[in-house]
Every structure is written in C-alpha cells, then in structure tokens.
Structure of Ribulose-phosphate 3-epimerase:
Amino acid sequence: MAIQMAPSILSADFANLERDITTVSNADWLHVDVMDAHFVPNLTLGLPVLERLAEVSPLPVDAHLMIEDPDHWAPRYAEAGATSVTFHLEAAADPVAIARDLRALGARSSVALKPGTPVDQVLDILTEFDMVLIMTVEPGFGGQAFMPETMPKVTALREAATASGQALRIEVDGGVARDTVATVVEAGADVLVAGSAVFGAEDPAAEVEALRALAEEASHR
Ligand SMILES: O=C(CO)[C@H](O)[C@H](O)COP(=O)(O)O
Ligand SMILES: [Fe+2]
C-alpha cells in the first residue's frame, strides 16, 4: 500500500486553519488532534470545529481522539465528517464495539496505543480495525522528541498483519521528521503524521513531498 502523508494541524495557525489546510492539499490525510484536558494535559478542539474542518478540507480527515469516553464520542466524530476515527485503547471500555460503530457509520476504524501500552492488547482484535496508531511520543503536545523504543511494536503489528493477510494501515505520530522517517517506514509504518516538521517548515507543501520521497525511498530498500 502506498505511503500516506498526514500533516497534523496541531502545529498550524489556529487562527488560519482553512488557509493552512489548503497549503498542504498535496498530502493524503488531514490529521486533526482532539484533546480534552483529561485524557491528556492539553485542550484543542471538538466536534463543531472538526465538522467545519471536514467541510472545507480538500483532504479526508483523520481524527485522533485523545479524549475520555471514546465509547460515546468516537461515533460522533464519524457523524461529524471524519473519514477515519482513531481512539485510544487506554480510554476505551469496549474497543470492539467502538470499532463496529465506526464502520457501521462508514468511517475507518482505528485504535491508538500510547508508548507504554503493549501491542498484544490489540493483536487478538486486529481485524476490527482498518488502522492502528502507534504513538511515537507521549500524546498531548507537538514538537516532542521521537521515541525509537516504540518501533518493535510497529514491527510486531506489521508481522501480524502480513501473516494473516490483513491490509492494515499502521500510523505513527510524534517526532516524525526527515531524520526519523526512514526508521518508521523500515519498521513497517505506512501512514506518517507530521506536525511541527511540516508546519514549521518555510514551505509546508514542499516538506510533505520531501518526507514522502524519503519514506518511499526507505520502503523500497
Ligand atoms: O497527536 C499528537 C500529539 O499528541 C500530534 O499529532 C503530534 O504530536 C504531531 O506533532 P509533531 O509532529 O510535532 O510531533
Ligand atoms: Fe495526533
């Protein structure tokens, strides 16, 4: 499957989101970080803002929910227009029920794991998901240092999906930049979130293409 680039608007200009989204329309997904100040110690945006972003975005919206009670909220984000909804396993009471609700609403189901959460917790229920997000920083803030110790989880997931023939997407999020992109792709990731690397660059669209080129090169090695 082709590598997908997903710029995170966490590092965009929150007073000019439509402008900044349009700037990266050469990417594949728009990664929108929803934080509730409970599951993580930061607060960003919620349903009404995501709904408008989905309306104006030229890219499908990849909602990353860092919130409590995803059993209730995750389907609401699918209804609001997110094409892909990622909720955290650590916050979920019934992850399989959430995944089925998301798919029933026509969204892609996706589950995220914090750096300290073992991957075996999703291996038995992998077919319920279109994507697994392996966090490569502690969730909550952009601009943090990449954690290479999370890579064995990516590899274990890729091996499990390959063994069963599942076309699973594996997303990585946090500290993805020119110096880490080969590492994540070689481990088996194929959806790359980048916030500060893209929106901190002088030319965000060119940075998307530079990261994509490095990722493609690593995937053919
Ligand atoms: O989910 C997130 C933080 O919890 C963001 O998507 C992530 O941090 C992107 O930012 P950067 O690329 O700057 O690390
Ligand atoms: Fe994110």
Notes: The first strand starts at residue 4 and ends at 7.
